[in-house]
Amino acid sequence: MSHGPHAVTRRVLLQGGLAAGLVAVPGLRHVAYAAAPVASPAVPATETLVVVFLRGGADTLSLVAPADDPDYLAARVPELRVRTDGAGAGLRLDQTLAPGIDFRLHPEAAPLADLYNGRRLAVVHASGLSDGTRSHFVAQDLMERGVGDEAGLNRIGTGWAARWLAHPGAEGAVPAVATAPNTPAALAGDAAALAVADLRQGLAPPGGDPTARVLAALHQSGEGAYARAGRAALAGLSAVDSRLPRLPDGKVEPYAPEAGAVYDDGEAGRGLQTVARLVKMEIGLRLAWVDVGGWDTHENQPGRFAKGVRQLSQALAAFHADLNRFETRVTVVVLSEFGRRLRGNKSQGTDHGHGGAMLVLGGGVAGGRMVGRWPGLASHQLDRGVDLAVTTDYRAVLAELVGASVFPGFEGGRLGLLG
User: Record's InterPro entries (predicted)?
Assistant: First the structure.
């Protein structure tokens, strides 16, 4: 059967082998929703959580570097280190995590240094998975499902974010959004979650009202997971589109950030700008997911990493300034599936490692601190003798923001991230 250019079809997108699929809203580019609702109560600790996931395994030993550690200096060539002096020196962090070490942010992270010094940003170093995988796909799946090892993937089929959103209080028109073509595995099981990559053209379906009526008819009957998810998605898209200010010609009015904030057109900037617009719409947004790729730096790391850090830092600072009047309601957590190896390789890069670092940003954050336990970089202190060890499970950080019951079987101490 052939379809004309505006024909409406339905297709199911399976993601990462999950039993719960992603159903693309027909006729809409870069919009999808997660199916198969779940119910698992949690104690919400933050009103709106924004997750920025650095895909590829970011070298957090270059983002937050133990710049004068002798083992760090011995393991890396100058181009792969953060310096303590001279042109391009890193930005010193006052901290009590390891008082004898001069921790410094990458020199391109000046906006993050300002947030840290303003006590809005906390760093959790040597954090990550207790599982020792160095596979991108396995590590990302573990983190998005909210489990500690690969055996947990067979026991838990939903994402940790979906389990959090199942708690009463997430009944807004659009409780969850991902600024990517598809929703992540963390939202698998949340029927109302939307993937909206861009708001600049609006979210009305091609063809206007006639197409909207056809879409509504396709999903109006049935009580299955996909039918319910379809109705929720259409309602959410309509709620967002109706709140976008329009010019006289019907086009979406260009967005004007507050407080002089400037977003660049990189992946982090575009995603966080979309989230800021949604927060201001007051549509009940509880969780936003922003993917930022490009962190798998096996070769030519110095220039690539510097650009990534610059764009990420500027985007986070713009987002914080833009949402200043919402700052006590919004918390941002930045994480990656793992860190990079301590020793650089022969291609001016670093290979897959283990321990990394997480950033937590917001008006309710007890910032200006490095949190956790620093394990050291001597050979006997490294994981497998080559990688930064994990001393803080990533779930301990998330549990302080969304409640520990979201992570079945996990028991971890509190870090005191929220003021």
Answer: DUF1501, TAT_signal
Amino acid at position 217, single letter: A
In which domain, by residue range, is 374 found?
20-204+238-406
Asked if residue 229 belongs to a domain, the reply is no
Classify residue 417: in a domain, yes or no.
no
How many distinct structural domains can be found in the chain?
1
The number of helix segments (H) and strand segments (E) in the chain equals 11, 15
CA distance linking residue 397 with residue 395, whole number of Å: 5
What whole-number distance in Å separates Cα of residue 363 and Cα of residue 355? 27
Q: Which two tokens stand for residue 129?
A: 């998975």
pTM to 2 decimal places:
0.89
CB atoms within 10 A of CB 357: 25
> 268-302 burial string, b = 16+ CB within 10 Å, else e?
bbbbbbbbbbbbbbebbbbbbbbbbebbbbeeebb
* Distance from C-alpha of 280 to C-alpha of 261, rounded to nearest angstrom: 15
Position 307 in a domain? yes
DSSP conformation class of 339: -
Which position has the token pair 């962190």? 295
Residues 104 and 80: their CA atoms lie apart, in Å, by: 14
Contact 136, 57 (CB under 8 A): yes
Q: Which residues of the chain have pLDDT under 70?
A: 1-45, 169-171
| pLDDT number for residue 231 | 84
CA-based nearest residue to 191, from 235, 244, 243, 241? 235
Write out the DSSP string of 214-271: HHHHHHSS--SHHHHHHHHHHHHHHHHHHHS-B-TTSPBPPP--STT----SSHHHHH
CA angle 164–370–304, rounded 5-degree value: 85
**Considering the domain boundaries, does residue 195 fall inside one?**
yes
pLDDT, position 169: 67
What CATH number is given to the structural domain containing 352? 3.40.720
